[in-house]
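User: Reviewer 2 asked us to show a designed sequence for the structure in our supplementary figure. I'm pasting the structure tokens here. Could you produce the per-position amino acids so we can include them in the response letter?
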């Protein structure tokens, strides 16, 4: 009986807890890419967004792995993963990839990774150079065809902002003249934000709401003051009307008394005449 040799288990790349060294611009845009796309697709249970994660694309081959800076997979469960193994995900490879290019990754991003991503069937592959030192222009998009990747022709706005549409994401990637990259949602007409930017926006919205509430309360107070002033004016007008009515009434009483006095004087004069007395003689 011969013993077959023990097979060495294949060890696939996994995170070891050590942070990967990145420059500030590369790290910032890696965070922006992952967070903004996570927020954009947060309501889709079958869209997975990640970045700087080991992605193994060939079972049994430990070094058949890449770590895209930002990638999106449609048709898989949206849940946290320690790594992404294509054969454990029904063969689903990323549909969209962004590499944030630096001096150390330029060669791989330009030559090696396009071949790997094309072989994997990544529909769109984008590169972005935040410093503008390695790519001209600093944003480049490729779309997979039967003949391999073809450069996506960019559009330019009047202010020289470069715009590349992503059919896969349903978004546009905008490169501003100052080198800043942003995802733009043409359906909603707004740029995608990170969690921090969402919080800041929420804080600003809350501040605006509080200011609007304060303004509304001030307007309500002013309206209440105006109502009170109007009531006071109405009360003063009613008091004036009552005083005028009282004066008119008093004048009418005086007139009536005067009339009564006149009538009594006439009656007295008539009686005196009946008695043969001339009233004028009594004066």
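Assistant: Here is a per-position design you can include in the supplement:
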């Amino acid at each position: 009986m011969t013993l077959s040799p023990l097979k060495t288990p294949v060890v696939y790349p996994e995170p070891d807890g050590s942070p990967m060294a990145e420059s500030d611009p590369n790290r910032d845009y890696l965070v922006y890419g992952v967070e903004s796309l996570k927020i954009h697709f947060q309501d889709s249970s079958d869209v997975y967004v990640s970045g700087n994660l080991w992605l193994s694309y060939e079972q049994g081959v430990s070094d058949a792995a890449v770590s895209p800076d930002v990638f999106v997979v449609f048709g898989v469960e949206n849940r946290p993963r320690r790594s992404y193994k294509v054969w454990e995900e029904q063969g689903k490879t990323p549909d969209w990839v962004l590499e944030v290019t630096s001096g150390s990754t330029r060669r791989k991003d330009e030559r090696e990774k396009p071949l790997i991503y094309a072989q994997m069937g990544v529909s769109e592959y984008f590169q972005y150079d935040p410093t503008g030192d390695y790519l001209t222009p600093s944003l480049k998009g490729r779309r997979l065809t039967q003949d391999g990747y073809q450069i996506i022709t960019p559009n330019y706005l009047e202010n020289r902002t470069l715009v590349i549409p992503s059919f896969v994401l349903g978004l546009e990637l905008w490169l501003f003249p100052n080198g800043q990259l942003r995802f733009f949602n043409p359906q909603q007409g707004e740029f995608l934000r990170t969690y921090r930017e969402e919080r800041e926006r929420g804080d600003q919205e809350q501040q605006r709401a509080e200011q609007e509430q304060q303004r509304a309360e001030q307007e309500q107070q002013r309206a209440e003051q105006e109502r009170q002033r109007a009531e006071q004016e109405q009360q003063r007008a009613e008091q004036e009307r009552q005083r005028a009515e009282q004066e008119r009434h008093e004048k009418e009483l005086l007139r009536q008394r005067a009339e009564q006095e006149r009538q009594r004087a006439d009656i007295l004069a008539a009686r005196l005449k009946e008695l043969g007395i001339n009233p004028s003689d009594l004066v």
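For the response letter, you might also mention the following. Helices lie at 24-40, 106-120, 195-274. The longest helix spans residues 195-274.
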